[in-house]
Amino acid sequence: MRHAAFAILVFLVTGAGSFNARAFEAATPTDSQVERCRQAGEFEKFCLSGYVVSGLKLPSEAVTLGPLSSTGKMAIYKPDGPGPFPALIIMHSCGAIVPEQTGYWVKSALANGYVAFILDSWSQRGLPNGSCDVSPGFNSITVRVRDAYDALARLAEIPAIDVTRVAAIGFSHGGRVAYLLSNSNLARMFGRRDIHFAANVSVYGECYNRPTKSAYLRGPIETPLLALLGDRDEDGDIRECEPRLKELQASGSPVEWHVFAGAGHAWDQPNFQSATMRPYPGSTSGSVLYKYDAKVTDETRARVRVSQWALEAINGLRLELEVINALVERAVILVMQHLVQALARHHVGHDVRIGFVALQSAIPLFDILHGEA
User: Fold this and answer.
1) pLDDT band at 298 (very low <50, low <70, confident <90, very high)
2) What is the chain's alpha carbon radius of gyration, rounded to the nearest angstrom?
3) How far is 259 from 230, CA to CA, in rounded Å?
4) pLDDT tens digits, one per residue of 227-285
């Protein structure tokens, strides 16, 4: 009864007209999903709202990008070779996928040895033009967060992908989702316990919505986050974002950001060559500046590439340190082994040899690390 009552509540809140007008498949949260959300405490209803829509039918395999491939629909593209590859999940705005925007990130990812996953949260739910100007009939933010974690889980099923090195990048509405993907509480609501995002990038994403009092950028943040903002953008408003970012950084959260001077919203979309003011109740002026900026677009791409390289360098350094540490410990054990053997030859007491037997129990682990077991 609880599940059915919740579904009816969603129907009433969204309105019968909105609910029936969309071609998405409603769902009732499963017992395990209800229990997971119950553990979210004060965010239980927020969590449940992510499970009242059926999950997406995600691609089952990664394919090669060909001359006839479309970067305007959901797909997983991989570089040549066996892998395992790191991956980038690309999340659209509130509108439909923009092939020119997505196409750049797909090609850039492939050129840098990444798998590219174009995630489409709209088409299968009867929203071919997105939800910018229509109500989707469900909480689009929580559903999209769940979509992203489902996409991460799907990547974990593909052998050619190193699921420990998956990042997500989101634009505008997708940027809000990127903020939330770095929040460890939401990871527990929607993600698998054994995998998580390695990093997230939010591009002109709104941090806080004034009318609904929704905070998309909030702690605790454990996953590295890069926020890219424009000082003339009243959607991803720096007056809301910067204080939150500074507070998070001061608390030790792994967040970085950059504010582009003179940049409005959607600065990387060429269809806004002419500056356009669009009504938006969440802004202080009531509207938001949409304006393409080629220079800011190029710098955005450069900053994200640097972040990718930095992440790869950090991951590589971490692996190298683990190997070095293992080698050092192995060397210490071998030295002590020779020492005890030498002492034994000189009839040194039983207690020393017993101590070494306890220490020697660690050897199989190092043998496995170095392929010697």
Assistant:
1) very high
2) 25
3) 5
4) 999 999 999 999 999 999 999 999 999 999 999 999 999 999 999 999 999 999 888 88
Query: Within 10 A of 36 (CB to CB), how many other CB atoms are there?
Result: 18
Residue 350 has what pLDDT? 45
- Sketch the domain layout of the chain as residue ranges: 2-318, 322-369
From CA 105, how far away is CA 109, in angstroms rounded?
6
b/e map of 342-351 (b: 16 or more CB within 10 Å)? eeeeeeeeee
How many Cβ atoms are within 10 Å of 285's Cβ, its own excluded? Answer: 10
Residues in CB range of 149: below 8 A, 6 or more apart: 181, 187, 190, 191, 192
- Indicate the pLDDT class of residue 351, thresholds 50, 70 and 90: very low
CA gap 267, 292 in Å, rounded: 4
The pLDDT assigned to 363 comes to 34
Tokens of 105: 């990130």
> How many C-alpha atoms does 257 have within 13 Å on its Cβ side?
29
Residue range 307-336: mean pLDDT, rounded: 55
**Residue 20 confidence class, pLDDT cut points 50, 70, 90:** very low
Sign of CA dihedral 251, 253, 254, 255: negative
pLDDT tens-digit readout, 162-211: 999 999 999 999 999 999 999 999 999 999 999 999 999 999 999 999 99
Beta 75-77 vs 115-119: how paired, if at all? antiparallel
Q: Could you give the CA distance from residue 118 to residue 90 in angstroms, rounded to a whole number?
A: 5
Q: In what order do the strands lie in the sheet with 161-171?
A: 75-77, 115-119, 85-91, 161-171, 199-203, 225-230, 255-260
Q: Residue 270 gets which letter from DSSP?
A: G
Q: How far apart are CA 297 and CA 319, in angstroms?
A: 33
Quote the CA–CA distance of 278 and 263 in Å, as a whole number.
15
CA–CA separation, 297 vs 91, rounded Å? Answer: 17
Of 268, 270, 266, nearest to 278 by C-alpha is 266
Whole-angstrom Cα distance, residue 172 to residue 161? Answer: 27
2-318 belongs to CATH 2.60.40.60: no
